[in-house]
Design brief:
single chain, about 160 residues, mainly beta, three-stranded antiparallel β-sheet, two-stranded antiparallel ribbon, about 10% helix
């Protein structure tokens, strides 16, 4: 009888060891360490005692246009992109993130971090928008609106600045 129990236990261990599920978190999931992420890249909430803007950390990977599964490549500046969870509205994003209208990506909510030196946080949406209050200049195809934010000529918001903190 003990011999049968040992054989049964070994079979269970063998089957469990062959399970293809990694148990790791997908792109957009919160993380503290890279080992938690399928991609092996975790941007932690804090780095060197500074808030990164990524509330709860985020599992991601670098991209140049495409991402695995339903994830969306969002420009992070300097010619690089980061994969983010896909969304249709901010309700689709986890707490601390907002949905971009141009790419449908869950990005850090700027009301919790910042937009850097070249953009301002739009309080209604939690998304960054180019700032033209200082010099009145906007990127090609955009004009400076009365509120000091760059917008399309017909008054619509421009594609978001990416909300990369």
């Amino acid at each position: 009888m003990p011999r049968l129990l040992i054989i049964a236990a070994l079979l269970i261990v063998a089957v469990t060891a062959c399970d293809e599920s990694s148990g790791n978190d997908p792109i957009g999931a919160p993380c503290d360490e890279k080992d938690e992420c399928d991609s092996g890249l975790c941007i932690q909430e804090e780095r060197y005692d500074e808030f990164t803007g990524f509330t709860g950390g985020i599992c991601t990977q670098y991209c140049a246009g495409s991402c695995p599964g339903d994830a969306v490549c969002q420009d992070a500046g300097a010619g690089e992109g980061l994969c983010h969870a896909a969304c249709d509205t901010t309700d689709d994003c986890r707490d601390g993130y907002a949905c971009t209208t141009d790419t449908g990506a869950c990005v850090p909510d700027c009301r919790l971090s910042s937009c850097g030196d070249t953009a301002v946080c739009v309080e209604d949406t939690g998304l960054c928008a180019p700032d033209c209050r200082v010099d009145g200049e906007c990127e090609a195809g955009l004009v400076c609106g009365d509120d000091g934010l760059c917008q399309t000529e017909d008054g619509n918001p421009p594609p978001e600045a990416g909300n990369a903190p």
